[in-house]
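Consider the tokenized backbone below.
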């Protein structure tokens, strides 16, 4: 028996109360859970301010800042060196010196801003293109100045969205065309324009494609890391932090929250007698039932082995009990339709104070699950105020044996 808990028995929810409580909607004879009051999407969106996505964005902005500082400072040095090595007229030397000073000043400014916003860094890119355009328009001779557009464009292709890349590239094309027309000393204007825009455009497309491919692979890896491959449900690694968010949100807004632990009865015997393929099928069928009986905002997880956990935001103990009864009824119906008879023991715990943690809820739900199994299996038990209340067997359940038809049998 769990630590410090008293255990009592009660009739099943169906026997104790056949009337649907307020806020429930009936479809035929099956009561449905009320709509989720907790905005789970909002909870998870707000949580990104401190979650892995926010950490990735902060790391990206930090790298963008470092690369931008390097580009501006190195660009300023290279540009200043051209004042003495390349430019031939006082006007072009003065222009290149001013552009070098402008690039250096922007680099220092970004260095002084410890945590710049993405919009600030993107504005810096447009400013660099403007300075490079001034350099192209005033250089005598032009030399390799147009190829320096490659720096800001590749920067945007790697760090920014495609829409931002398209706008930045378009701005470069327009300004390059304008300054080439204004440069009266350069003769190969069309060749310079065509070669520069084509080369930089191809490089931008390639970098953008590789970056997007990398992002897709990272998302796929993240899904694989957070998902149970057999059932497609959340795994324990991803379930726990999401449950912590629900607990925090429920405490702040004073909403109920329940955690339900399921354990498939006699699952080891099923694996031993029928084989692991049949056991895998049983797990997949049970996962499908949990999905069908749960709401959009519920967290469903394969907790480990034959254990499953479900977080029910907006659900008190009585609502969670009816949820488990619907799951048990669906198991009975599934047995009739596909000859797959599996049943489950259930532990329930609801949030009682604002000081409770997700780990405490899981521990109490697990203690209640243990009490349900000790009380004969195929039933639910609820942790209520330090007391575990064990219910009667689920209606239509099989407690003496577990029958699963082998899907490989002829």
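A designed sequence for it:
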């Amino acid at each position: 028996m769990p630590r410090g808990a008293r255990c009592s028995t009660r009739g099943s929810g169906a026997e104790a109360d056949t009337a649907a409580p307020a806020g429930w909607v009936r479809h035929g004879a099956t009561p449905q859970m009320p709509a989720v009051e907790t905005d789970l999407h909002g909870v998870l969106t707000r949580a990104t301010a401190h979650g892995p996505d926010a950490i990735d964005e902060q790391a990206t902005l930090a790298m963008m800042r470092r690369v931008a500082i390097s580009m501006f400072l190195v660009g300023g040095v290279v540009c200043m060196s051209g004042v003495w090595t390349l430019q031939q007229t006082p006007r072009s030397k003065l222009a290149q010196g001013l552009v070098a000073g402008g690039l250096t000043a922007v680099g220092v400014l970004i260095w002084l801003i410890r945590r710049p916003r993405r919009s600030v860094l993107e504005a810096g890119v447009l400013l660099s293109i403007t300075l490079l355009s001034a350099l192209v328009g005033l250089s005598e001779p032009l030399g390799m100045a147009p190829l320096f557009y490659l720096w800001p464009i590749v920067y945007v292709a790697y760090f920014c969205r495609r829409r931002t890349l398209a706008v930045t590239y378009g701005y470069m094309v327009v300004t390059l065309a304008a300054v080439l027309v204004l440069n009266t000393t350069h003769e190969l204007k069309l060749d310079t324009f065509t070669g520069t825009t084509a080369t930089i455009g191809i490089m931008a497309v390639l970098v953008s494609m590789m970056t997007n491919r990398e992002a897709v692979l990272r998302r796929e890896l993240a899904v694989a890391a957070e998902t149970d491959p057999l059932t497609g449900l959340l795994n324990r690694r991803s379930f726990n932090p999401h449950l912590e968010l629900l607990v925090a949100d429920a405490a702040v807004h004073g909403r109920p929250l329940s955690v339900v632990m399921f354990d498939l009865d006699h699952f080891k015997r099923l694996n031993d007698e029928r084989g692991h393929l049949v056991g895998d099928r049983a797990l997949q069928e049970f996962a499908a039932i949990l999905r069908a009986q749960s709401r959009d905002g519920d967290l469903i997880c394969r907790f480990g082995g034959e254990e499953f956990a479900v977080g029910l935001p907006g659900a008190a103990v009585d609502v969670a009990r009816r949820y488990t009864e619907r799951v048990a009824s669906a198991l009975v119906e599934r047995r009739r339709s596909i000859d797959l008879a599996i049943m489950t023991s259930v532990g329930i715990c609801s949030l009682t104070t604002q000081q409770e943690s997700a780990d405490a809820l899981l521990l109490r739900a697990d203690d209640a699950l243990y009490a349900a199994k000790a009380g004969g299996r195929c039933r639910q038990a609820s942790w209520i105020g330090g007391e575990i209340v064990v219910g009667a067997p689920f209606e239509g359940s099989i407690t003496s044996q577990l029958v699963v038809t082998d899907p490989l049998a002829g």
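Confidence is low (pLDDT under 50) at residues 1-52, 399-410.
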